[in-house]
Structure formats: structure tokens, C-alpha cells
Amino acid sequence: MSDNTRFPENLAPCIIDNGIVVNKEDIYRLLSDLGHVRYAHYLDGQASGEGEGYIVEVFDDPSQATLIANQTIYLNLGSFDYLQLQTAANSTYFDLVQDQRILRLIPLTNPLNCQQGDANLDPATLEAMVTDVLSARRDVQLDEEDDEYLF
């Protein structure tokens, strides 16, 4: 290689299986299609809660919360500083980090098996998820209407 060889100065990062992701759009791409996950919540290094759920929505809005309830997960990227991508025992997991808080997401579905959409969802589960999303959106709309009357 000669001294005249030039490399682009502003290369985009390349992260393969392990690394820290700070760009919200990259984090969104990693999380938006995870589907069914096991989650663990840690505060100050201590386990605070765990369970399983389905990621219904990934968004970035400073006025809304990340919510996990009733086996549904609404992830607000604004709730976290960065994502740490890691592998262990041939499995990838995602740590969403904010100060002393970590929300670990471990995928339970294999994207290679879900290329045609998530055919593993039975109709009752899909209907319940859609009902939850529509209900949550309606609640937000009602709250916004109530706020308008306060001012």
C-alpha cells in the first residue's frame, strides 16, 4: 500500500453482533421487528423485573413513556441513551441503557423463520394486540382532548 492511498474520512460505523449503537435510527431498525421478547429490567445493577412480551411499537417522543404492561411493550427510544448489542451462547440480546437503568431484550422469535410476516401469531393473539394498540391510541387522543379544555 502506498502513502497515496486515501480512505474516506467519514465512514459510517459497522457493528456486527457486538457494539454500542447511539444513532436513534439505527436503534429503531434493530428493535422495530424483534416481535416476541424476554425482557429483564435492572436498576443499579440489581434485577428489578423480568417477563415476556411483544414489541408493539418503537418510537422516539420526549413527551411519552416506555411502557411494559400486559405482555405488550411500547419502546420510546427517548427513554434511553444508547443500545448495547451483545451475543452470548449463540444468541444476540439488546441492552437499552439510561444512566443506571438497563432494559435487556432477548428475542424469542427467529427472523429467519418470520420472513413472510409472523405466521406464528394465532388470530386471537393478533386481535388482542390490535385491540390494545387501538385502545392505547384512543386513550392518548382523549387525554389530549382533555388537556385542550384545561388551557
Keywords:
eight-stranded mixed sheet, globular, 151 residues, 2 domains
Task: Describe what is shown at a glance.
This protein has 151 residues and is α+β, with helices and mostly antiparallel strands.
The chain-level mean pLDDT equals 83
Ends apart, CA distance between termini: 68 Å
Q: Count the DSSP helices.
A: 2
Query: What composes the largest sheet?
Result: 8 strands, mixed
Neighbour order of strands in the largest sheet:
1-6-7-8-2-3-5-4
**Number of DSSP strand runs:** 8
Q: Compute the CA-based radius of gyration.
A: 19 Å
General shape: globular
In what range is the share of β-strand residues? 35-45%
Written description of the protein model:
Strands 1-6-7-8-2-3-5-4 form an 8-stranded mixed beta sheet. It has helices at residues 24-31, 123-150; strands at residues 19-21, 36-43, 46-59, 67-69, 72-76, 82-88, 91-98, 101-107. It has 2 helices and 8 strands. The longest helix has 28 residues, at 123-150. The protein has 151 residues and is α+β, with helices and mostly antiparallel strands. Strand 2 and strand 3 (46-59) form a beta hairpin. The radius of gyration is 19 Å and the shape is globular. 24% of the residues lie in helices and 36% in strands. The chain has 2 domains: 19-113; 121-151. The termini are far apart.
